[in-house]
Amino acid sequence: MHRSAIWLTAHGVSLMGSRILSVRGRRSGEPRRNIVNLLEFRGQRYLVAPRGQTQWVRNLRVAGEAELRLGRHTERVAATELRDEEKPELLRAYLKRWWFEVGRFFQGVGPKAPDADLARIAPDHPVFRLSRPAA
After folding, report:
1. Residue-range domains of the chain with CATH
2. How far apart are CA 15 and CA 3, in angstroms?
3. CA dist., res. 39 & res. 48, Å (int)
4. b/e for 57-75, b at 16 or more Cβ within 10 A?
5. Who is most buried in 8, 34, 84, 123, counting CB within 10 A?
6. Residues in contact with 67: Cβ distance below 8 Å, sequence separation at least 6, in sequence order
7. What rounded mean pLDDT belongs to the chain?
8. For 127, left (φ over 0), alpha (ψ -120 to 50), or beta?
9. For 117-129, how does the pLDDT look when each residue is reduced to its tens digit (9 = 90+)?
10. Percent over 90 (pLDDT), the chain
11. From residue 36, how far is each of 47, 100, 117 by CA, in Å?
């Protein structure tokens, strides 16, 4: 599924919000690409890292900006990492939408879990708010 999702997204077919994230490697400086799920929540856009402290997370922390691609449309974004206390409602929204795909990475915590459970797992799942980069 992963390869087909990447192919479809690269050719302009978003699977429930999928995008190709391109971020500069923190050591190599070369662009690194991963498929991500773009969460739109209360007028803002976010990236949630279901697998935790991955390479794309580490690279995005250092770079502070990236590109999101869907087909031929590429958009530059600035990324601001959220504090753990800001994450629970976003994690719930993310899990409501993609539980079937990523639920196994959330330690048994699902979209209907109590707030305390979402707060407990928040440190394990980086979340970035996306905005337009500074000119």
Report:
1. 2-131 (2.30.110.10)
2. 12
3. 8
4. bbbbeebbbbbbbbeeeee
5. 34
6. 21, 22, 23, 74, 75, 76, 77
7. 90
8. beta
9. 999 999 999 999 9
10. 76
11. 7, 15, 24
With 0.90 as the threshold, say if the pTM is over it. Answer: no
Structure tokens at 30: 């070369």
In sequence order, what are the residues at sequence separation of 6 or more whose Cβ sits closer than 8 angstroms to the Cβ of residue 37? 16, 17, 18, 19, 47, 48, 94, 97, 98, 101, 102
Alpha helix (H) residue ranges in 83-132: 88-102, 115-121
Provide the token pair at 60: 């995005």
How many angstroms separate the Cα of 25 from the Cα of each of 16, 57, 61, 66? 27, 10, 10, 10
